[in-house]
Amino acid sequence: MQIPDLQGKVALVTGSSTGIGAAVATAFGQQGMAVAVHCNRTRAEAEAVAAAIEAAGGRAIVLQGDVSDAARQAELVEETVAAFGRLDILVANAGSVVERKPIEQAGDDLYDQVMDLNARSVFVAARAAIPHLRAAGGGSIISTTSLAARNGGGGGSVLYAAAKGFVSSFTRGLAKEVARDRIRVNAVAPGVIMTPLQERLTPAKQIEAAIRLTPMRRTGTTDECVGAYLYLASDALSGFVTGQVIEVNGGIIMP
Known about the structure:
Family: Belongs to the short-chain dehydrogenases/reductases (SDR) family.
CATH architecture: 3-Layer(aba) Sandwich
Keywords: Oxidoreductase
Oligomer: single chain
CATH superfamily: NAD(P)-binding Rossmann-like Domain
Protein name: 3-oxoacyl-[acyl-carrier protein] reductase
GO molecular function: oxidoreductase activity
Shape: globular
Radius of gyration: 17 Å
InterPro entries: KR_dom, NAD(P)-bd_dom_sf, Sc_DH/Rdtase_CS, SDR_fam
CATH class: Alpha Beta
């Protein structure tokens, strides 16, 4: 399916070497977009995503760096604009549970890691992107929040849930602040989606319990998340949509 108004647009997708970010970046390439594919450690995977984008008719560069570092996160935005001349869409997707621990066992270092990666990075990316989106005549900021922002997260992920709660609230507040600049700000809240990160950090019993609570009785796939990001990226499809969190969770939580 082609979405005509996305052709030629420029996007930065953080955390796009694997998982949901990779699926979104690849889908953007299939729309003929120019995409900055971001990774931290998984350079080879990011290069593969960039190759897939170019094979589909889009343009791609690979940017590497830790978004927990505020200065590096801001640089990723500037490097995208330097490479492609503008920025139309920011997808602040990078994030992780980091480590599952009960709160009484969680140290200040873990707090800093989780908040810097999942919350501060979204704030810094948006702050850096806004002047460029304004200069482009408007644009779209899409953050990846989580089911955890609403249900408090699974075992040992309270800090992650709290950080994602920040992302959801930040989305709504920022949407009000930049609406008159024709910048729309929204988020996607995936449920239990099977990604390499999920498989590494979530115990099988926890996933099984989530499946039992999900009306569709299964986990989701990264490709099933892509449509929400395409919808929010397109002014033609979602031009009057801002400050919203779209739930992609198989019905495990309903508004």
